[in-house]
Amino acid sequence: MRRLSPALFLLILGCRPPQVTAEMTLLVGRPADAITLDPARAYDTDSAEVCEQIYDKLVRYKRRTLEIEPALAERWTVSPNGTEWTFSLRRGVTFHDGSRFDADAVLFNLERQRDGAHPYHEADFASWEAAFRNVARLEKIDDFTVRLVIERPYAPFLANLAVYGMGMVSPAAVRRWGHGYAQHPVGTGPFRLVEWSHGDRITLERNPDYWDGPPAIGHLVFLPIHGARQRLVAIEGGAIDVAERLAPEDLQFVALHPELKIERVAGNNVSYLAMNTGHAPLDDPRIREAISHAINKMPIVKMVYQGLALSATGALAPSSWAHIDLEERAYDPMLARRLLREARFVPPKAPLKLLVMSTPRDYLPSPEKVARIIAHNLAEVGVPVEIIAHPLAEHLRRTSAGEHDLCLLGWSGDNGDPDNFLYTLFDGDNATPGNARNVAFLRDPKLHGLLRWAQETEQQDQRMRYYAEAQRSIAAQTPWVPLAHAQVVLTHRTHVSDIEVTPSSTSYFHHAVLEPR
Predict the structure, then answer these.
(1) Which of 58, 205, 353, 379 qualifies as a FRET site for 4, CA 20 to 30 Å off?
(2) What is the pLDDT of residues 431-484, one digit of tens each?
(3) What is the mean pLDDT of the chain?
(4) H helix or E strand, kind and range, residue 465
(5) Residue in 287, 276, 248 with CA at minimum distance from that of residue 355
């Protein structure tokens, strides 16, 4: 394969090479650009990954673990009843614009998400409602101490504070840019924004004053290169240093290449076909069960994932402490046809709308190929389907609004707590059209009670019992056809080292090292 210089390849893509400096620049090629760089508004992996380089949270995960450690909060205490969390903040930290990080900054960040009347609240804040709706009030104790009071004990609370949506933004920058802040991000993190040229590149530079030590690299550039084969050509030719989400069928070539290295971890993720339980005929659980028996997952796992995934029976990956072995819904077209007859299914005049993203994800590397397999399976049992593909941002907008009958989606866990999957993706609290994460629009009071009880107890064995019952209840109602739990795979050239690849599909570059070639 002919090698292209980095500058030539970027010009072919319509990109300008980053400015050459005395410091090393790391180039990352990935399928899509970020949608927003306001962490509170982010809901996609591409946005979250960039936000994680720019912002810090009060707490974070220790490298390569799901163990919580201090970040912008140096320590914290919890009241005996579990409802008052007091955080002592790190002193001497400044935002990239020079403004001070302190208790006022924390209250500004949290209030703008919590309070719908806040002058800088946005209707599409994605994290708060799913994870922090039970925050009752926020208190400033002194300049470097804050207290968060919650309505009831909430076991996932600390883990949720470590996710990207809780990145601390500069109040001064938000006041300056208002609704346009998402294009001008200012955090306290290891990298700061130089330029975001939409659809072309995001350029970050090292924060030399980072409280946890500046990065080893001078610049970090994210390049949207939409085709998997284009990303393969780019990294093989040396035009980029890192390639995300290469096609699984190309990884055999990568494994044999002397200048390329593959990093892979078991993903904390799931891909699924959601059925909109609010739309006829999918409001009938017998028809949903029939659809589950009509879909053959074996060719999806073998052909699409090339074996780099496990067939899924539920939302939780086997690595989750709350995972239970659920019975696999067997591929059985004859049973599917019988169930449809018993439900008196009549093919609708218009085919069912199957919405799918055109953008590959770690949890779903070839979405449209999977959609075609599913549409073929359903046609064989007499269920007509129309595939409607959109880029990721539009796909998420339409599915969260409930415009689909069926949709292909997935979820990469923001933290290691099963609540992040089961409550977020199946509870009626998260089924509000327009902001829904529960895109099956399942509303079940009994399930809601189980998930609430699991949130309110700290004992993991008791939480496990609630989650086991919840998973069985979800499986019985069949709002989804779970498809696969995929490995997270990242490819880089051998002169790059110490990139942290996580089960959540987000990579961290704070400690990345780029040796001269």
Answers:
(1) 205
(2) 999 989 999 999 999 999 999 999 999 899 999 999 999 999 999 999 999 999
(3) 92
(4) helix 460-477
(5) 276
- Cβ contact 401:434 at 8 Å: yes
Q: What does the alpha-carbon distance between residue 40 and residue 58 come to, in Å, rounded to a whole number?
A: 14
- As a residue count, the chain comes to 517
Amino acid at 35: I
Whole-number Å distance between alpha carbons of 122 and 125: 6
Closest CA to 393 of 141, 198, 216: 198
Strand partners, 89: 73
pLDDT digits (tens, 9 = 90+) for 51-109: 999 999 999 988 877 789 999 999 999 999 999 999 999 999 999 999 999 999 999 99
The answer for residues whose C-beta is within 8 angstroms of residue 40's C-beta and 6 or more apart is 109, 112, 113, 122, 125, 126, 127, 128, 165, 167, 169
Residue 116: partners with Cβ closer than 8 Å, 6 or more residues away: none
Here the tokens at position 441 are 């629009």
CA atoms within 13 A on the CB side of 114: 17
Tokens (6 digits) for 342: 């018993």
What percent of the chain stands above pLDDT 90?
Answer: 85
The predicted pLDDT at position 18 comes to: 40
Residue 287 CA to residue 257 CA, distance in Å, equals: 48
Residue 61: closest CA among 132, 158, 133, 127: 158
Question: What is the reported pLDDT for 283?
Answer: 97
Mean pLDDT of 3-31: 58
Q: Give percent helix, percent strand, percent coil of the chain, each to the nearest 5.
A: 30, 25, 45
Q: Which domains does the chain have, with CATH numbers?
A: 1-54+189-259+494-517 (3.40.190.10), 56-174 (3.90.76.10), 269-487 (3.10.105.10)
* Distance in angstroms (rounded) separating the CA atoms of residues 417 and 322: 9
Helix (H) or strand (E) run with residue 437 in it: none
Q: pLDDT-based confidence at 414, cuts 50/70/90? A: confident
What DSSP state is assigned to residue 284?
Answer: S
* Measured distance CA(310)–CA(148) in Å, rounded: 40
Which H helix or E strand runs over 192? Answer: strand 191-197
Could you tell me if 73 and 109 are in contact, meaning their C-beta atoms sit under 8 angstroms apart? no
